[in-house]
């Protein structure tokens, strides 16, 4: 029986952190954390990315994404924007957990429900297509014996420390190198 896209794992470990060297400190631009993703189109709207923490070094993973049928995909894996929503929720949870440990707060459970709202305008044909998130809402549910003031401060600090949320609210410059047929043809910045 031939493989179908859903027969293959959507996420799999490529290498363990112990088997990777990562970036040397002089190549980090002074960043505390460097994460790299390299993505390619597999077939149609199905994409494959290799992602890894380069500094500090972490395991390398392969992640599959596919668009839903309205965009011509097969809906065989999460859509790209769903990974961003998951990243935001995971990041907030990590910061909540780290804060609770550092401050010795009782944290019995934590759940983050994060909803992203997007809009698109313009058209591909006249090069005016654009998209943006215009709102993100969070519902953060905590079970804890800590005081409500302590829980509020924990969540406030966690959101300030969350790289994903702070990347959304801050103006983060993006530089893009365009390579065509092996030749660097442009450098773009936003």
Molecular structure report:
α1 crosses α2. The protein has two domains: 1-78, no CATH class; 79-190, K homology (KH) domain (GMP Synthetase, Chain A, domain 3, 2-Layer Sandwich). 11% of the residues are buried. A hairpin with a 1-residue loop joins β3 and β4 (57-65). The chain contains three helices and eight strands. With 190 residues, it is of the alpha+beta class. The chain starts with 10 loop residues before the first strand and ends with a strand. A four-stranded antiparallel sheet has the order 1-4-3-2, with no helix packed on it. The chain has a two-stranded antiparallel ribbon with strand order 5-6. The chain has a two-stranded antiparallel ribbon with strand order 7-8.
Task: Supply the key terms.
2 domains; 190 residues; GMP Synthetase, Chain A, domain 3; 3 helices; 8 strands; 4-stranded antiparallel β-sheet; alpha+beta
Element layout with pairings:
Blueprint: E1 11-15, E2 34-43, E3 46-55, E4 57-65, H1 80-102, E5 109-121, E6 130-143, H2 148-161, H3 163-169, E7 175-180, E8 183-189
Antiparallel strand pairs: 1-4, 2-3, 3-4, 5-6, 7-8
């Amino acid at each position: 029986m031939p493989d179908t896209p859903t027969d293959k794992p959507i996420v799999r470990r490529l290498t363990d952190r112990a088997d990777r060297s990562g970036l040397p400190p002089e190549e980090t631009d002074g960043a505390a954390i460097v994460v790299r993703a390299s993505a390619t189109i597999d077939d149609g709207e199905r994409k494959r990315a290799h992602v890894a923490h380069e500094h500090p070094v972490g395991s390398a993973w392969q992640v599959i994404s596919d668009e839903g049928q309205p965009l011509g995909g097969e809906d065989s894996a999460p859509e790209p924007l769903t990974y961003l929503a998951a990243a935001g929720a995971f990041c907030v949870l990590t910061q909540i957990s780290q804060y609770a440990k550092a401050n010795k707060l009782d944290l019995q459970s934590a759940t983050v429900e994060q909803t992203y709202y997007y809009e698109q305008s313009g058209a591909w044909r006249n090069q005016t297509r654009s998209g943006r998130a215009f709102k993100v809402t969070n519902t953060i549910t905590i079970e804890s014996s800590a005081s409500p003031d302590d829980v509020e401060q924990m969540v406030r600090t966690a959101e300030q420390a969350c790289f994903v949320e702070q990347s959304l609210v801050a103006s983060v410059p993006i530089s893009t190198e365009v390579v065509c047929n092996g030749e660097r043809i442009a450098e773009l910045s936003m």
